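EI: anyone free to look at a 343-residue chain?
SC: sure, send it
EI:
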Amino acid sequence: MNYKSLQKLLFLLPTETSHHLSLQSVALMQQMNLSALVAKDRVQDSVELMGIQFPNRVGLAAGLDKDARCIEGMSALGFGFLEVGTVTPKPQSGNSKPRLFRLVSSRAIINRMGFNNEGVDAMVKRIRRSNFKGVLGINIGKNATTALEDALADYEYCLRKIYKSASYIVVNISSPNTKGLRSLQHGDELSALLEGLKETHATLIHKHQKTVPLLVKIAPDMDDDEVFQVSRKLLEFELDGVVVSNTTISRSGVIGQKYANESGGLSGTPLKDQSNRVLALVSSEVKDKITIIGVGGILDKEDALTKIKLGADLVQIYTGFIFKGPDLIFEAASAIQAHYATA
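SC: here you go
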């Protein structure tokens, strides 16, 4: 069965049901060595960034596999790297259902999941039991019940727990689905958070004699001045990279559509222009100083190439993977490989 046929069946189900079924199917295909039925060969386009050797520049964005349930299966589909999470110190159920909505005509998704996950201890145990040998980013957040003034402690807790299991670590301060979280992107709150995290990071480097790169994931809804301020803070505190961007709270691209008024973060095609605007601004400040991962609105190979041309070193897909399947991984990675071969 090709992906388009499978997608038609999955889209008949409630969105979150099809999401969980898809993850279970990926895990099952890997267990049965059947991943080749839906995937093309992995594009070999190795690049070293942040001291990590990436097999190719196309990764899976955080949010799809929150608990690292099917990392071996996802990798077998051709991704050059995976990012799992967002994971929090304690397990939490997230926001009430329904909380995931497809806007099919716009190739978009609205989610207000709210960092639903089994907690960092469960994730670490699962990763250690797996046979996964690829590049694994782990995206960390704070629990919804943790006060903003105590957020640093949650991030530090996760940082310590996952340090040995991660290829790189992403600090998520940009989800719109945890109340107040995005305020951590600005001013004194950002400085205090980054200062604390860098101190903890330094102690972990010394303890484990291993440097795991530390990145921050930012929102697409900031104005130009806010983007420049965040970018300069990342340089000031010597972060290793930045992920641009999370989902948007804007509905400008989907006004009048079914589900458009649902709260949560919007991803997919309507996010593309906003995400690319922020990417270009960030790149103008930090390019060649820290690694940039571009994510948001990649639905075809041209979208992936645009991210690279705007300054991204790597790209990630999520909504595009849901709408286009594994072919998008191969097409995007091949296009990026060809771009660098002729540059």
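EI: The first strand starts at residue 47 and ends at 49.
SC: 👍
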